[in-house]
Write a structure and sequence with these properties.
Number of strands: 30
Helix content: 25-40%
Strand order of the largest sheet: 15-14-13-16-18-17
Strand content: 15-25%
Shape: elongated
Number of helices: 17
Radius of gyration: 31 Å
């Protein structure tokens, strides 16, 4: 038997990797030699404690070894000091200090893994493997020597290559400005933040000695209505703060095309729009840093997603070309920028990654949704709908993936609704209507109890109705027989409820006090849901299918939509309701994945190249699908997964009443419907 064959056998769990190592080899060194995922910032100097491991002792028949009590060297002074000051969990050892003495089985706990997985809240979503583009590296730099003249930066770059394998690292002027004081204050030992997504790794910051603080990143989703951001710890993957705000561009127009029109019709309009969104991003970054209790200068990275018009405007690119065919993007590629290029105040050398766009009206936010929900990995036919002012739709599976956008308008978010408002305390968000009495009950944001329950505060201020509330209200009106399939609201006589009140030539349903669901509200929702359904149907046509296996509702608004009510309205195709789920802000989640995993950036760039874009504006069948989808739920498509809806029809009878009134020259002839 050779000496190597007599060396102790070390087995790492949970990876199962194994190898033989000479007695006295540190566990961390053994792990690195065979590619075990064991973290370390200090390079094995016993400073950072990230290489903690849990050795196991006794007989392990599965592995064919017995681990003796002395398989590792005794706890040393470095470990004792760390345990005394910060505490080590029972049985834990520092991998850089524990030396192999015999056969060993050692577990690498999740928090000690370099590429540890960050658990997402939704059970069906895949975990994020933590591997950010910016990492900390502790190095010992050679002191200057008159006999071997070289610059401090060159010796730092050499130390990073020798001690961390980071070849070709570069610094810039800011690095030089902080480097010499840091080296001397740290006795030639420094911690560097190195960004490695690009042609060469870049030194972003240098601290003297071992830096024990945090480094952070922002994942930002710029929507046409709202901007959302997640501040993440780049070392743990933890979300430390989530914040959102209205997109201030709304004052230039509710929808995207109105903002493009503003840019086209007003000299300097595009610059105004860019200034507004950049100011909002700075406010968001400041608020997130404040909420997390950190300095915004410790934010070293941001990942940005958004629809093509938001994408262009935040980059300072005039969006005029996106307002007319052929909807040409300035670029569809992903971008790596300095934060200062878009006037974003983070760390002075902070880097920005912008996800690629798919096409002229399917943007980086849709790419982020695809990264988050991974329809390209699905065996089933999966429909992903990011519901917003401009809906973006993905359909496909691992064989083929299609995308389109559909102009749904702002009605789903409470705009263009008579009593509509944004989702805020006091807004009606849930609605139920008794099909017999036609009486409603509702819930408002900020109050858990329903309006007819004893716990509902008598002084609760009901301020309006938000997007999810109007969808549920109209769907409930349809199931209660207050609304017919064409979208007409019946009269009090036809519906047997005094809550249906005349309003000009139509009727409205009184939901609460002066909060009405009007005929105009129904029409606005019909237009939005018809555009949404027609877009999905076009993609289904392309794949030659009438059914889908699974539907995912994405977007901050999509998270609050009731799948049953969405299907009653005909917003989405028929599907088993158990197979309809919400992904929340999937675009924001995709941005967070790209922030925390540098390989995910290459993944989404490759994925975007495989997505086939369908342009709804030039598809002749879009209008045909749109018209058929005006009915609730649909004029022709079957919805077998829904309970039968009332077969009421108010148009003919109301038409006869109107014609009769005209013949009688009745003074209230204008009360009949249009």
């Amino acid at each position: 038997m050779t000496k190597a064959e007599r060396d102790p056998l070390v087995i790492f769990t949970p990876s199962g990797k194994r190898g033989r190592f000479p007695v006295g080899t540190p566990v961390l060194t053994a792990a690195r030699q065979i590619g075990v995922d064991l973290d370390s910032v200090c390079g094995g100097r016993g400073i950072c404690s990230k290489c903690q491991v849990s050795p196991a002792y006794g007989a392990f028949p599965k592995h064919g070894v017995t681990v003796a009590a002395d398989a590792l060297s005794p706890v040393n002074a470095v470990e004792e000091r760390y345990d005394r000051i910060r505490g080590l969990a029972p049985g834990r050892r520092l991998g850089c200090q524990a030396l192999i003495q015999g056969d060993l089985v050692v577990d690498v706990p999740p928090e000690s893994q370099v590429h540890r997985q960050v658990v997402r809240k939704r059970a069906e979503a895949r975990a994020i493997t933590l591997d950010p583009a910016t990492r900390l590296h502790y190095v010992e730099v050679a002191e200057p020597d008159m006999h071997e003249p070289s610059g401090d930066l060159q010796r730092l770059e050499r130390a990073l290559a020798e001690q961390w394998g980071l070849e070709g690292v570069k610094g810039d002027l800011r690095t030089l400005q902080m480097l010499q004081p840091a080296l001397r204050a740290g006795a030639w030992k420094v911690t560097c933040a190195v960004h490695r997504d690009g042609p060469e790794p870049r030194i972003l910051h240098v601290w003297p000695g071992f830096y024990e603080g945090g480094i952070y990143g922002l994942a930002i989703d710029i929507g046409s209505t709202t901007i959302a951001g997640h501040l993440c710890d780049l070392q743990t993957g933890e979300v430390l703060a989530s914040t959102g705000m209205m997109n201030p561009q709304i004052r230039f127009g509710e929808d995207l095309m109105s903002r493009v029109s503003y840019a086209m019709l007003n000299q300097g309009g595009a610059r105004e729009l860019t200034g507004a969104v950049r100011a909002a991003l700075n406010d968001l970054a400041g608020q997130a840093a404040t909420d997390a209790g950190i300095a915004r200068e410790l934010i070293f990275e941001a990942v940005i997603v958004g629809n093509p018009i938001m994408h262009h405007l935040v980059l300072g690119i005039d969006p005029t070309e996106l307002g007319m065919a052929p909807f040409a993007l300035a670029t569809a590629d992903a971008l790596n920028l300095w934060a200062e290029e878009i006037e974003l105040r983070l760390h002075p050398d902070a880097r920005i990654y912008v996800l690629p766009c798919i096409a002229g009206h399917v943007g980086a936010d849709a790419a982020a949704v695809a990264l988050s929900e991974a329809p390209d990995r699905s065996e089933e036919l999966m429909l992903v709908v990011d519901v917003g002012t401009n809906a973006e739709i993905l359909l496909g599976n691992r064989e083929r993936l299609l995308a389109c956008s559909s102009p749904t308008g702002p009605a789903f978010e409470g705009a263009q609704i008579s009593s509509g408002q944004r989702a805020a305390p006091g807004a009606i968000e849930r609605v139920e209507i008794d099909p017999v009495s036609k009486e409603p009950r509702f819930r408002i944001i900020g109050v858990e109890a329903w309006s007819d329950e004893p716990d509902f505060p008598p002084d609760a201020r009901v301020t309006g109705i938000c997007g999810s509330g109007i969808i549920e209200a109209i769907a409930e009106m349809r199931t209660a027989g207050i609304l017919d399939a064409s979208g007409l609201i019946g009269s009090p006589e036809q519906t047997a409820t005094s809550r249906c009140v005349p309003q000009g030539r139509t009727h409205a349903y009184r939901l609460h006090d002066d909060i009405l669901v009007t005929q105009g509200d129904v029409r606005a929702i019909q237009l939005g849901k018809s555009a949404l359904y027609a877009g999905a149907r076009l993609l289904m046509d392309q794949l030659g299918t009438d059914t889908v296996d699974r539907i995912v509702l994405a977007g901050a608004f999509g998270a609050h939509i009731s799948p049953r009510h969405a299907m009653i309205l005909g917003m989405i195709p028929d599907c088993d309701l158990a197979r309809v789920s919400s992904a929340g802000n999937a675009a924001g989640t995709g941005a967070r994945i790209a922030l925390l995993n540098v390989a995910a950036r290459r993944e989404v760039e490759a994925l975007v190249g495989r997505i086939h874009k369908v342009e709804t504006a030039i598809e002749p069948r879009f209008q045909e699908h749109f018209v058929a989808a005006n009915a609730i739920p649909h004029a022709t498509a079957p919805f077998p997964h829904l309970d039968p809806l009332p077969t009421v029809s108010f148009n003919a009878e109301q038409g006869r009443r109107r014609r009769g009134r005209v013949a009688d020259r009745s003074p209230d002839a204008t009360d009949a419907p249009a």
